[in-house]
Amino acid sequence: LKPKISPDFSDSVESETIQQTFLTCEVPFKSRNFSEIEHQLHYVWYKDEIPISVDNRILELSSYPEPVKQLSSSSSRQGTYSCVVTVEGIADRFSSQFVNYYLSDVATYTVFLQGVDVSVGYFVSLMKPMNKLISDVKEDFPWLFRGFEWDIQMSWKTEENMSVQLLLYFKTRFWYETQLYFVLKRKFKEEVLTITKSTSVSLELESADVCFEQALPSSSTSYNVTFLWKSTKQTKSAVSEPMCLNGIY
């Protein structure tokens, strides 16, 4: 028994399509009528390997309850989906393939904040000057993006400091993404000292889904090599390893 998710997207899609998009976990039965066994089947959907509370063979991308994100928008619905099927009376679990669902008109950035013994709420308050910075960019370069949203991705605490990672979503066009990246990096570098001058907090801004830099030092990855990066049309979720490699030298 091998469940299959359909449709299996081969490329990224426009964010407007998410209102009409649903995934189906199809269960093939060669020798039995599906209707005879359908009531014995149970489904668990996963997004980025995190379970979603939907026990149904159909998953509506625009309306399922988000397992982690506070933000409920088309941007946060991006990810890698899979489904697992169980049959009553059978201990085995049957897993589908992984399906990537990413938006071609949404650019994702990570903001990494770190400080000494401060709360998540304190970090969230820092988004006020960040929002102003981005609004200023939009005012100066109105063609670069049509809007933005942000959401907490994760937070963790050690004996020495508190860290929070945020996701910023920019609605833009693919052909503007390179320009948007360098404008944001320049503006962020100019303003970050103002934002943090009276605090002990550090901030970093990076693109999470498109690789723009010419090379990535091996010290930044778990590999003992240097990677060449390239721009890509496929939007990707935030990860710790490069996903758009152009070669190794």
Automatic annotation (TrEMBL):
PROSITE patterns, A to Z: IG_LIKE (PS50835)
UniProt domain Ig-like: residue ranges: 3-100
Protein name: Ig-like domain-containing protein
